[in-house]
């Protein structure tokens, strides 16, 4: 039988999704179900003097209207699982108390017999707000005269995180060149196709609560929600049905889930809430939003000596599950693929009157990769070196792995040179450079850019995670010989129903069609740490392999008994147990399973049944890597960017299903394309959200997505039995700097060395216009070695170069 692992098998999940037969949260309809809608603050910061609910309470169909005074004591505070030594945190209750502190902050909830009645009643609520000064700019949030997002804290500083290693002062003293650059990672809105939603149902007789919710983390919700609403964990069932996109935004326990759960108990009826798109934009977590000042010390041959960084991370107005931790991942991964003897890193988390930030696809690693890859290009530009050679010079050799970074991580395995060289071959690197030269001779703005990235995935070691990083799995061979696989991970588009079936089919030697993979329901998958950080297959798949190994060992004992030989003489291959040297006399799972469950003829002390469960905790995270190469052309008149070629060579270890890998990489690149060229979440100076719907928040359309050329290298990880590393975030991490580097390369003949993201047509058009306003001699003087800057760059001091 041909192995399933390595085959591009179409997802077994897809037929029900394509045919519209799948179940999402909004498809859940229960008898007597009520509907909740929320009144949200229109102000970024305001005192709530009063909320008049009388008219709303008497509106047709209304069952109840509740404010913070009614619910907060019973629902507790929204949990944050990030531990920081000096963290100052506001007490964020499920509804605002005396003060609202971001646009979209829920201040009251209406429950009615249907959604229309609830929305009509919402219009009858009369809230008296007294606007307060708001802080919306993280770069000025620490100024002495800044407004305070939380006056009771006395500061907008949430924490300061520092990491230093190596002799950073000596590194900068010995440098031939020091390059400084300010970079902005704009705030982004995840904008999943399916907004959040939940349905809560309470069984009064049993005292049990069932919560259907669009989440990536049903098990963590079951762990955290009891502390809010005081329902014991063993009387709580969390179900994550189909999830229409998460990208990290659904890696959270939100206030609405706790409120609906409490109201289902309080009102004695199921309660449903489905988020609107505007609510999703305002009150579901945002991503990125970091501003950093970065310095690199280098020798004249391009050798990297040290990095200094100072980052201000906008946390928004309160803390969700991982809000404080995400910016620290930027610091941990800042050295990227490179040897760097010394680092000095500081991250200051600040509060503003905006929605909280948290994990968004890549979660800190895109920011780190963007910084180091832009710096590598600036180094090459300043020293007049080939950007490829600068990277190759600073890569660790494959023989140096496991490789210890100055930030305290240990990269498991890598061959960065191999991925880069393969990407060059696939892209036709030399041909692209000739194409660029030809285009420039004719006056066209043509650029070629690359990025080499490494990311931290398969989050597993418990020492790195607040709630333990293991993963659980279970494999059961039914009496019929069919196989049920249960995973504690919660796939929502990654395709683990297919890939886990492939793993199981090969390991057990059964047809793929005989396997069912179950997930997302805590009543079925009793344990789990869910899906985020590209961990599902590397950690969850490894747990499944452990279960299979146990089943095969047990099967050998039973087969030996039935064959009348010692277990030591039994071999297992391709789904058959046989005596060594006698393969024709074999027993398959179809014979062993009924014998095991009927239990009339079992070996002594043999426990009936063929089921095994396992907890797997990896010894280390995994570190996928790759190289992305992009060629672009820019329209001088409009500033529009056209991607001419996109090549990605990613290394996620052995691929269970190349088709799934390709889909994940394609989706990740599309999101990076959005960050690089289109997307930005904008608040005005008063904290008003200006990009609250699709008309205002520009995401790439189908016509903006180029044709990808995808390839891979294979470097197995020693951290799990499958050698796999994870690929769910690779495209999002590798693509943004590659696109940005290509755009800046296209603009470099004009003397433009850096522009902040997103590189919209307007941004580029203005930079081109500003270049023509600035005398070349002045630009060269400002930029160092023959380089020129835009007038705006010089005014803002974005790029500075000093020669030691």
3D architecture notes:
- This protein is 29% helix and 24% strand.
- Helix 18 crosses helix 19 (730-747).
- A seven-stranded mixed sheet has the order 3-5-1-12-9-10-11, sandwiched between helices. A six-stranded mixed sheet has the order 7-15-14-13-8-29.
- The protein is globular.
- The protein is of the alpha+beta class and 804 residues long.
- It is built from 22 helices and 29 strands.
- Residues 776-804 have low confidence and may be disordered.
Structural key phrases:
804 residues; alpha+beta; seven-stranded mixed β-sheet; six-stranded mixed β-sheet; 22 helices; 24% strand; disordered C terminus
Mean pLDDT across residues: 95
What does the radius of gyration come to?
28 Å
Uncertain regions: pLDDT < 50 for 5+ in a row? 776-804
| Spatial strand order of the main sheet | 3-5-1-12-9-10-11
Number of helices: 22
Instruction: Give a quick account of the main beta sheet: strands, pairing sense, barrel closure.
Output: 7 strands, mixed
The portion of residues assigned to helices is 25-40%
Shape: globular
Percentage of residues in DSSP E strands: 15-25%
Structural class call reads alpha+beta
Q: How many β-strands, per DSSP?
A: 29
Instruction: Give the distance, in angstroms, between the N- and C-terminal Cα atoms.
Output: 65 Å
Provide a short characterization of the protein structure.
This protein is an alpha+beta fold.
